[in-house]
Specification:
Layout: E1 6-13, H1 32-43, E2 47-51, H2 52-58, H3 67-75, E3 83-88, H4 98-101, E4 107-111, H5 116-123, E5 128-131, H6 138-147, E6 152-155, H7 159-167, E7 173-178, E8 206-213, E9 216-222
Parallel strand pairs: 1-6, 1-7, 2-3, 2-6, 3-4, 4-5
Antiparallel strand pairs: 7-9, 8-9
């Protein structure tokens, strides 16, 4: 396999494995202390990746919040916040979304080959548009990000993207935060969808850390030999 970034998946979910409610409204799956932990992890990364559905439904800014962490990155010669990356099959994203308009950093959009021209017309003024293959291929994206200098990638969802990275065996580490409530509605979005995962009853993932953070719990899994405990 060609070089790819060290890839860390980060997700918050309900006790029964859901990312949101059935009406697509975001749920408060974390707390202030865990938000700060995520901010610290973001500060160690070169790029943050989310799927197009996350951009549309959650309208994330994907910026480092802490000024001191931004200053530390600047002192190391890095941008104050990581590159923002999204993946889309249709290219139907709003150029006014917070993903694009916040942060004076590069934004990269990987889209299906058939929609590259349309995506460039719509988003070319606010992002770099890259052909991600037909259909979009996560191996190709990982290799391209590495070629762009991304050594450490943080994937923050949603469920489709997490499923694609996991089933492609492209994840080195998983941070799974469990919120203390149930959603109880199968129409809601899940952490992952159906797929052939490398970790199963015969090949169990390695639980590297369990940490209580207020009323949530962090489960940290090592998913590849490249896992780093720091």
């Amino acid at each position: 396999m060609a070089d790819r970034p060290y890839t860390l998946l980060s997700c918050g979910m309900s006790i029964d494995g859901y990312l949101g409610s059935a009406n697509m409204k975001p749920l408060q799956l974390s707390n202030d202390a865990d938000f700060d932990r995520v901010d610290a992890v973001r500060a160690t990364c070169d790029a943050i990746l989310v799927g197009a559905e996350t951009v549309r439904n959650d309208n994330p800014r994907l910026l480092i919040r802490s000024r001191s962490r931004q200053d530390e990155r600047l002192a190391r010669g890095q941008a104050p916040t990581p590159i923002k990356v999204t993946v889309t099959g249709r290219g139907q994203l709003d150029p006014r979304a917070d993903f694009f308009v916040t942060g004076d950093i590069e934004k990269v959009v990987y889209c299906a080959s058939a929609t590259v021209d349309e995506a460039r017309a719509r988003l070319g003024s606010v992002a770099t548009i890259v052909d991600g293959g037909e259909p979009v291929d996560m191996h190709r994206i990982s290799e391209d990000l590495h070629a762009r200098g991304v050594q450490r990638l943080m994937v923050e969802g949603g469920g489709t993207v997490h499923t694609q990275f996991l089933t492609a065996d492209l994840a080195d580490e998983l941070h799974l935060v469990v919120a203390p409530f149930f959603v109880g509605d199968s129409r809601a979005r899940r952490f992952v969808s159906d797929g052939l995962f490398p970790w199963n009853s015969r090949r169990r993932a390695t639980l590297a850390e369990v940490r209580q953070i207020g009323d949530v719990v962090l489960l940290r899994y090592a998913l590849s030999p490249r896992f780093r405990a720091d």
